[in-house]
Design goal:
It is built from 14 helices and 29 strands. The chain is an alpha/beta fold and 571 residues long. A 7-stranded mixed beta sheet has the order 14-27-28-29-25-26-15. A 7-stranded mixed beta sheet has the order 23-20-21-22-16-19-24, with no helix packed on it.
Length: 571
């Protein structure tokens, strides 16, 4: 096996550039031949599909190379974090099919990080700054102009120590002081210009309560947490490229504090960056997604229109389809905008293999088979999944009074309209061939009932059933079906790349992203299906029962259509 391949059963798959770098490190014996990754989300919201890409990379690399991936919750900002977000993160990762080795929290290391900060101050590597955030920002300079030193930069270490300890008291005023690393105000990398590493926050922490009042910044806590845990490869997205030198610098200082200066580049995490997942008509900013939730533009983090993992799960996406999509777009060093149609195609392809076929009518009109005996019923056999014979069959009741789709009838049809029209024959799926004989209209001219006659010798499976007709329609028995609400979803945003649009993102929302159909009918098998069970409403699309669906109030979410109709709408 070369370092460009991974054995997967009897087959070998090509490696991404990330996996190639990991394979090279293993071949060179770095970190004692260990592979340990981690997925480190901040519990300040629900995970979205962009996080799913990172999750699959972190966990798959560890699994493919015989290592371990741990989960670490980056809980360094108690103003935005809570246990609900933590639990949802755990649920989403498990649903995606990933298994962590251990669960850690950045808050596990608060004391170690505090002790490290004390050492930095004592050894001239950090100082307390009492300027405002605006003053500090102004003194940072620009990428082409050096920053200006803080007037507090050279204060005695003893004074900074006293003030730093004061920062961690209930009496400290938020925003009055910060601890800054003393690095290089002229460095072309802006992150090196004396970054803030501690600030005052009095909001109780979801795990530590009111024990701490000074909290580490992400750039300070992140790399050290990796090092404390023994992470070998810190795999992250491209926006962290300019953070990498700072990541390495803090680890160098930590190793110096511990007296591990002989082998600065051994047994340390290697940061590798890959491109983020961006989707058309989708916003990935967690801050803006939170605003959509808080301002009631959506029903919650798990609204089926949201790009969150929980929203996609509720809508009816399968974890396998998400994995397949992410695998298809791959990992590179270049950001790209991926077409939502690619994700939906992966969902469609996967659900075709696993969805149970049922009959449902979402825009109904009554069809009366006038020559079918009053009160008579028959049980017609329907295949559960033509892609998997082992899933068997079920029966659906046929009767005189049926519901069909309103779009399946035209009183005066063009030549290539192969559905129901007066004087023409069509097959009712799994049942009989019928010929339309007329229709009834209300005072406004709306069709309220269609009449047809059936051929008793044309039942599916009978000899007469071999007669060819060009149209096949789905149906449900009006007396043996269940009423349901069906929710149809469109793109949440009207513009292809809302993240790049300078307008307020609220102005970009698609006001027609949700259509609720209240007069829908489904066969009894569909009514028994639960959230998590994949359905295909025949000839319509893929659906799933909503989490709020009840026996008395059935609700189904449309996952995706049978075809990509969105592309046609844009043409």
């Amino acid at each position: 096996m070369t370092t460009n391949e991974i054995p997967t059963g009897e087959q070998k798959k090509s490696l991404s550039f990330v996996e190639q770098l990991v394979a090279e490190d293993l071949a060179e014996g770095k970190n004692g031949g260990r592979i340990q990754t981690r997925f480190p989300p901040e519990p300040n919201g629900f995970l979205h599909i962009g996080h799913a890409k990172a999750i699959l990379m972190d966990f798959n690399v560890a699994e493919d190379f015989g290592g371990v991936c741990n989960l670490r919750l980056d809980d360094t900002n108690p103003t935005k974090e809570n246990d609900e977000y933590v639990q949802n993160i755990l649920n989403d990762i498990q649903w995606l099919g990933c298994k962590w080795g251990n669960v850690y929290y950045a808050s596990d290391y608060f004391q170690q990080l505090w002790d490290f900060a004390i050492w930095l101050i004592e050894n001239g590597h950090a100082y307390v700054d009492e300027q405002t955030s605006e003053q500090i920002a102004q003194q940072k300079g620009t990428p082409t102009e050096p920053g200006q030193e803080s007037p507090y930069r050279n204060r005695p270490a003893e004074e900074s120590l006293r003030l730093f300890r004061q920062m961690n008291t209930p009496e400290a005023v938020e925003g009055s002081m910060v601890l800054r690393a003393k690095l290089d105000m002229a460095n072309p990398n802006m992150h090196f210009r004396d970054p803030i590493i501690y600030r005052i926050i009095h909001t109780p922490h979801h795990r530590t309560g009111t024990k701490w009042h000074a909290y580490p910044m992400y750039d300070f806590a992140h790399g050290q947490s990796d090092y404390f845990e023994g992470v070998t490869h810190s795999i992250c997205t491209l926006e962290f490229v300019p953070h990498r030198p700072l990541y390495d610098k803090f680890i160098d200082l930590l190793k110096e504090m511990r007296g591990e200066t002989d082998n600065l580049h051994d047994n340390r995490p290697r940061q590798i960056e890959f491109n983020r997942l961006n989707l058309t008509y989708t916003m990935m900013s967690k801050r803006k997604l939170l605003a959509l939730v808080q301002e009631n533009f959506v029903s919650g983090w798990d609204d089926p229109r949201m790009p969150t993992v929980s929203g996609m799960r509720r809508r009816g996406y399968s974890p396998e389809s998400i994995r397949k999509f992410i695998d298809s777009i791959g990992y590179t060093k270049f950001d790209a905008l991926n077409d939502m149609a690619l994700l939906e195609a992966a969902v469609r392809e996967d659900l075709n293999q696993r969805a149970t076929r049922v009959s449902a009518v979402i825009n109904p009109v009554k069809l009366v088979i006038t020559n079918y005996p009053e009160g008579q019923t028959e049980e017609m056999v329907a295949v559960n999944n033509p892609e998997n014979e082992a899933e068997g069959t079920h029966t659906i009741t046929f009767s005189r009074n049926l519901w069909i789709e309103r779009e399946d009838f035209m009183e005066e049809a063009p030549k290539k309209f192969f559905r129901m029209s007066i004087g023409k024959e069509v097959r009712l799926k799994n049942a009989y061939i019928v010929k339309c004989t007329g229709c009834t209209k209300d005072a406004e001219g709306n069709i309220v009932e269609i009449q047809a006659e059936y051929d008793p010798t044309s039942k599916s499976g009978m000899q007469g059933a071999n007669r060819k007709v060009k149209g096949t329609l789905h149906w449900v028995s009006a007396d043996h079906c269940k009423k349901a609400e069906v929710r149809i979803y469109d793109r949440l945003f009207n513009v292809e790349n809302p993240s790049a649009d300078e307008r307020d993102f609220r102005e970009l929302l698609n006001t027609n992203s949700l259509t609720v159909l209240n007069e829908c009918y489904v066969e009894e098998l569909a009514a028994k299906m639960k959230p998590g069970q994949y359905l295909q409403f025949q000839r319509i699309g893929y659906f799933m029962a909503d989490i709020n669906s009840t026996e008395n109030q059935l609700v189904f979410n449309k996952t995706v259509g049978l075809k990509d109709n969105w592309a046609k709408q844009r043409q």
